[in-house]
DNA sequence: CTGGATGCAAAGGTTTTGCACGCTA
DNA sequence: TAGCGTGCAAAACCTTTGCATCCAG
């Protein structure tokens, strides 16, 4: 995945999706805030930060812009698809694919990919307990419905 | 707005202890449903399923049991820590660590782990676009506050 | 018996949306 | 100017919790 430096924001997501983009001062401010940070703020945190510069910005605008920016690959969204938590009765080691559109999850063939994870390491001051690989894409149904 | 959850992700995650567990018929039913399924249902879906056998079960009970079962490693929770979506201004390839207790996210050193991902594969009928590795553990702050 | 578990309902928090107006391209 | 984007507020959701009661161990 190559990334962009302030490209014309009319981007195409993998799959040919065209995204409209008008660079408003709100959007610019959100992007600037996010670029300046190495933390991984939530929408609310971003809202609070941007509000120092644009006191009248609304939380709805923050959410809308985060989506837009993520779609045009200018930022990363760390979670996808209308998030309700999902559960799995199978506790054996295996990986998951998640549909970017509907959030559905399926198992990946066990032999398919073993996540070669250092089993007890420290990163960024964290005591790591485990790791997961997750694949993202479109399920058969959503692939059909998307234009 | 931000909730620094009171969520104690686990009594013992990696360890083998156990958590208070009383096998009620509700808990058994939830577990049975989950074991019988290869899908990865949400709490609501599980609620609907279990209700066919225990019509008076409440959604709150489903949530409480899903947490309990996940803590005792009988099922897998596919998402962790008070979930607000988080965003990242850095679109370059890198991995994340997430705190199981507070949900905080940090970057993993870029050279640390390259997720060796087949770049265009099909799994379980999905068209995969990309993959991610995510590490889970406890941040310095939460490690201290634990127990 | 006793303390953990349940049902119910209400609260809490996050994210989305409808609408009229503003502003970028 | 056109129509995307914004602010505001309400709605829609998902998840958690308080409390009285129930029941598994």
Primary descriptors:
homodimer, 147 residues, alpha+beta, four-stranded mixed sheet, two-stranded antiparallel sheet, 4 helices, 20% strand, disordered N terminus, DNA-binding
Task: Describe the model.
The structure is a homodimer of 147-residue chains. The first copy, chain A, is of the alpha+beta class. Helices cover 27% and strands 20% of the residues of chain A. Chain A contains four helices and eight strands. Chain A has helices at residues 25-36, 43-51, 59-71, 140-145; strands at residues 12-13, 17-18, 76-77, 87-88, 96-99, 105-107, 122-123, 126-138. In chain A, the strands form two sheets. Chain A has a four-stranded mixed beta sheet with strand order 6-5-8-7. In chain A, strands 1-2 form a two-stranded antiparallel ribbon. In chain A, helix 1 packs across helix 2, helix 1 packs across helix 3 and helix 2 (43-51) packs across helix 3 (59-71). Chain A is globular, with a radius of gyration of 18 Å. The model of chain A is unreliable at 1-19 (pLDDT under 50). Chains A and B meet through helix 1, helix 2, strand 3, strand 4 and strand 5 of A and helix 1, helix 2, strand 1, strand 2 and strand 3 of B. Chain B binds a DNA duplex (25 and 25 nucleotides) through helix 3.
Determine the most extensive contact between two protein chains: A-B, 74 and 73 residues
The quaternary state of the protein chains shown equals: homodimer
Percent helix of chain A, as a range, is 25-40%
Distance between the termini of chain A: 22 Å
Q: What number is the mean pLDDT of chain A? A: 77
Order of helices and strands of chain A: EEHHHEEEEEEH
Helix-strand makeup class of chain A: alpha+beta
The strand order across the widest sheet of chain A is: 6-5-8-7
Low-confidence region ranges of chain A: 1-19
Shape of chain A: globular
Number of strands of chain A: 8
Biggest sheet statistics of chain A:
4 strands, mixed
Our Rg estimate of chain A from Cα atoms comes to 18 Å
Question: What's the number of helices of chain A?
Answer: 4
**Percent in strands of chain A:** 15-25%
